[in-house]
Fold this sequence. Notes:
The chain has 2 helices and 20 strands. A hairpin with a 7-residue loop joins strand 16 and strand 17 (274-289). With 332 residues, it is mostly beta strands. The protein is elongated and about 75 Å long. The termini are far apart. It has helices at 2-19, 31-37, and strands at 28-29, 42-49, 58-62, 67-71, 88-98, 101-114, 122-125, 141-147, 150-151, 165-169, 176-179, 199-207, 216-219, 226-227, 235-245, 248-266, 274-289, 297-306, 309-312, 316-319. The strands form 4 sheets. Strands 15, 16, 17, 18, 19 and 20 form a 6-stranded antiparallel beta sheet that branches.
Amino acid sequence: MTKLLLxxxxxxxFANAQATPGPATPPVLTVKAARALGAxxxxxVRAVVLNGTEMGNIRYxxxxxxxxxxxxxxxxxxxxxxxxxxxxIQVTGQLKLYNxxxxxxxxxxxxxxxxxVRLRALKVPVAQANTVFDEANESRLVEITGxxxxxxxxxxxxxxxxxxxNYLLNGQTGTLVRVGAASTGPAxxxxxxxxxxxxxxxxxxxxxxxxxxxxxxxxxxxxxDMVLGGGxxxxxxxxxxxxxxxxxxxxxxSTLNPGDTRVRYGLTAQDLKESRTDAALTTHHxxxxxDLIPGTTYYVEVSSRNASGTETAxxxxxxxxxxxxVRVGTKN
Length: 332
């Protein structure tokens, strides 16, 4: 009887131990709802990453409504250093204020949900740029359109960008642009030359203010954030045929900005019945057409599409080389 009572007591103790709850993961919130809880709150959000290592150890994330900064040491958080723009993640951590910027630090955990997610920027013309430099847009991706120049705070036009340097959009006060020292290499901003024609400038709106107010700054990530042609592919080289044979040729052309490759073709410019597409985004386009008729003129229309829209060139005639056609069937 004593042994039975002892066993029952041990079992009850084990059951109670099993029932003791561990630390619970906070419910998943929108970024806007998480921001509203403020510094000191532990939150979980799902959002899309806006940048990679070109901004060092900080990662900015956003959902449809708001943005948030994350800060972690890659050596202490496996996989964090590999996060880059377009990664969708779920992340948990504690919020704190760093010189006015609300950020998640420490980041307790995260896991990647998907990759290649399209980034959506808040677009504003340069004449209205001041209106987005505020708390509501902190840590969001912003695109300022129609920029004609970047100027130093002293008013001098920037010809080469430097790391940890400040610039102004068209020289306008209150539109601070800062180039990070980590954005280096062939794709980086450091030593890049701003366009001499109007361009759009993308970047993450951040904040650095020891007092906690003001200090908003636009942080472009890479040289590709200086966008020409409104981001549209913009054909820069007309299509030409290469590797011409009796039964085909390769269509090549170029665009200013990356886009997919699209070719429509037919025997007349008004009847382009056939089409081919390559979804890979590129500025150097190449697509091979086969099973064509020897010694025949084909009208070829090329186009390219990306997130900003589609550019299409008028159809042009290409001719397959001559050759003997093989008749299939019974000789009469």
